[in-house]
Design a protein that fits this description.
With 86 residues, this protein is mostly helical. The protein contains three helices and no strands.
Length: 86
């Protein structure tokens, strides 16, 4: 039985790795870029930052000094609207 031995034949995997190494970083960058740029999930659009102004206004407890100022402002606005000719 005869066997053929050649030193010039290399395994296919090692040849391919040597060619891909210079482009691996570039390919990895673009793969990550496209994955992030075209990802339809955007959690910042759905993030709840806390109660809004309507909730704060509904549940706010005002000090007596602030309550009196708000009452004066509302009375002044109502008086101003009543004085304006229609």
């Amino acid at each position: 039985m005869a066997s053929i031995v050649s030193a010039s034949i290399s395994s296919p995997a090692s040849g391919r790795d040597a060619q891909d190494k210079p482009y691996a970083a570039i390919r990895g960058f673009w793969r990550q870029f496209f994955a992030r740029a075209f990802d339809p999930y955007r959690p910042e659009l759905h993030y709840m930052r806390g109660p809004g102004p309507a909730c704060r206004a509904k549940h706010a407890v005002l000090s007596p000094a602030v309550q009196s100022m708000v009452a004066e402002i509302r009375a002044a606005k109502a008086l101003g609207k009543a004085r304006q000719p229609a």
